[in-house]
Design goal:
The complex is a heterodimer.
Chain A lengths: L2 H23 L3 H8 L1 E7 L7 E2 L5 E2 L1 H13 L2 E7 L4 H6 L5 E7 L2 H6 E8 L2 E6 L15 E5 L3 H9 L5 E5 L2 H9 L5 E5 H10 L6 E8 L2 E6 L3 H17 L1 H10 L8
Helix pairs in contact in A: 3-9, 3-10
Chain B lengths: L7 H4 L2 H34 L5 H13 L3 H14 L6 H26 L3 H9 L4 H31 L11 H12 L2 H31 L5
Helix pairs in contact in B: 2-3, 2-5, 2-7, 2-8, 3-5, 4-5, 5-7, 6-7, 7-9, 8-9
The chains are: A alpha/beta, B mainly alpha.
Chain lengths: 263, 222
């Protein structure tokens, strides 16, 4: 056997072997969770309001509430596994967690390695402003002053669609953008719904209501590839939570806004 | 050192740079005119102890010279609207620059006024000139002539300091630089060009100030 052929065989064996192990680890997570009575769910702990550590040192937030609701509906005990945004997918693919509920957005690269449920949380950039300002689309911002953090996604996206006579004031960081809004220097701001929620939570000066979306990237529950049974159950549960209003309560509690109707 | 420069990516935005440059110059010019006016008033009040203005200017000078320009700017831009005074970013920027330059030039011009020889004032008094006449014709021109180089430097400092007005979304030259590099991610080239532009602007402003001083004040100094 020449050297190159030997190497090829070695690599092929390694790939086959590892995929066999991977498949093994993934063998019907729903069945094994039901057998053990616990569902292992990866949640964030460093991303308010989706997941933080509360004063009692226990994880809390939007994602944790959803995790517990899913556990309740499936009649399984929930084991929360704190993860960071970089290791949340590896925790799933290496079989350390059954579900990832960690403000995960969908994209083509991720869809190659994991499967996504239906959306369970809104996550978007949009134009926010006071309730009494009737703004429904980018065209309505004509003649208005809009604050935005320079170079952010919302700056780039809104600059493309804003009418020429919209006065876009670009600030250095999120704090300056928010201060400009709170002090009345701008009429509207472009930012993320999570940022707006944090502002509404901490400041009573001027409320931020969603006017329209600039870029929508909602959050999904992730399961491993090939977990059709688990995915189907999770989708059922999320649909039920949306109907029952439970999910809306979670949204009100953590995002200070109703769940968007189209989620 | 394998960085490949791409200045063309910055020059695409030359109109943004040009607009920023003009606004920086406009800010500096307005700030200088009104700042110097405040400086002259403050200097004479303090040097000749004109009550109660000397005390007012003393407090003003200390307050401004012992706080950072950026904080003064934020105070005006974010603070005043909370008190019901709505001003836009340009009004805030100009106000901050005038207040800042006024305080520094008060002290610079005061030094010039205090350096006036006693005999010169006495000579003017013996000619039955009024106090205002003495100040305008005998004291102020030589005082300004003496301290003009220091004033020129202070104006250049304020022009360079106007770069922080980008923080309140005033679209001057530094704002243009930040804007461009947030769009093309060519930070090195952008700041390279803008640094050179500030350098040229500073030389230009200094020349204008020196020539302007010579024309207004006469004399060989400055």
């Amino acid at each position: 056997m020449n050297k190159r052929l030997f190497l090829r065989t070695l690599i092929a064996t390694a790939i086959l072997g590892s995929s066999a192990i991977a498949l093994n680890a993934h063998a019907d997570a729903l069945a094994s969770a039901e057998k053990s009575g616990t569902l292992r769910i990866a949640v964030p702990q460093d991303f308010p309001p989706f997941g933080t550590v509360g004063p009692d040192l226990k994880p809390r937030g939007y994602d944790i509430d959803v995790a517990n609701l899913i556990g309740r509906e499936l009649k399984l005990k929930v084991e929360l596994i704190p993860v960071s945004s970089t290791n949340r997918v590896p925790y799933l693919t290496t079989g350390k967690a059954d579900l990832v509920i960690s403000s995960l957005g969908k994209n083509a690269e991720r869809e190659k390695v994991i499967d996504f449920s239906v959306a369970y949380a809104p996550f978007y950039n949009g134009i926010f402003g006071p309730a009494d300002l009737p703004i429904k689309s980018a065209a309505d911002t004509a003649g208005k002053t809009v604050g935005v953090t320079r170079g952010s996604v919302e700056d780039l996206e809104f600059s493309k669609v804003a009418p020429a006579n919209t006065s876009i004031k670009r600030f250095e960081d999120n704090n300056s953008t928010i201060s400009a809004y709170l002090s009345g220097q701008v009429q509207l701001i472009a930012t993320g719904n999570v940022v707006a929620a944090a502002v509404n939570e901490s400041s009573k000066l001027r409320r931020l209501d969603t006017k329209f979306l600039i870029k929508d990237s909602p959050c999904y529950v992730a399961v491993n590839k090939g977990e059709a049974a688990l995915l189907a159950r999770v989708n059922e549960v999320i649909a039920k939570l949306k109907r029952s209003g439970d999910l809306n309560q979670v949204s009100q509690r953590w995002l200070h806004a109703a769940l968007p109707a189209n989620l | 050192m394998a960085y490949s420069f791409d200045f063309a990516a910055v020059l695409e935005y030359r109109e943004v740079l040009l607009a920023g440059t003009l606004r920086t110059l406009a800010l500096t010019a307005t700030g200088t005119v009104f700042g110097l006016a405040i400086g002259v008033l403050g200097a004479v009040s303090r040097a000749w102890r004109i009550a109660p203005y000397d005390k007012v200017f003393a407090v003003y000078v200390e307050a401004v010279r012992n706080t950072p320009f950026l904080v003064q700017l934020f105070f005006i831009f974010f603070g005043l609207p909370s008190l019901g005074v709505q001003i836009n970013e340009w009004q805030a920027a100009i106000l901050a620059m005038v207040i800042n330059l006024g305080a520094y030039t008060t002290e610079i011009i005061r030094a010039g006024i205090e350096a006036t020889p006693r005999g010169q004032i006495e000579a003017a008094q013996s000619l039955a000139m009024t106090r205002a006449q003495i100040f305008r014709q005998v004291v102020l021109p030589p005082a300004l002539r003496k301290v003009w180089p220091a004033i020129c430097s202070q104006v250049v400092i304020v022009m360079l300091g106007s770069s922080v007005c980008s923080q309140i979304a005033a679209e001057e030259l530094t704002f243009a630089a930040n804007f461009i590099q947030s769009r093309n991610f060519r930070a090195f080239e952008t700041y390279f060009i803008v640094t050179a532009m500030y350098f040229v602007l500073a030389l230009l402003v200094r020349q204008i100030m020196i020539r302007g001083g010579r024309r207004l004040l006469g004399g060989r100094r400055a």
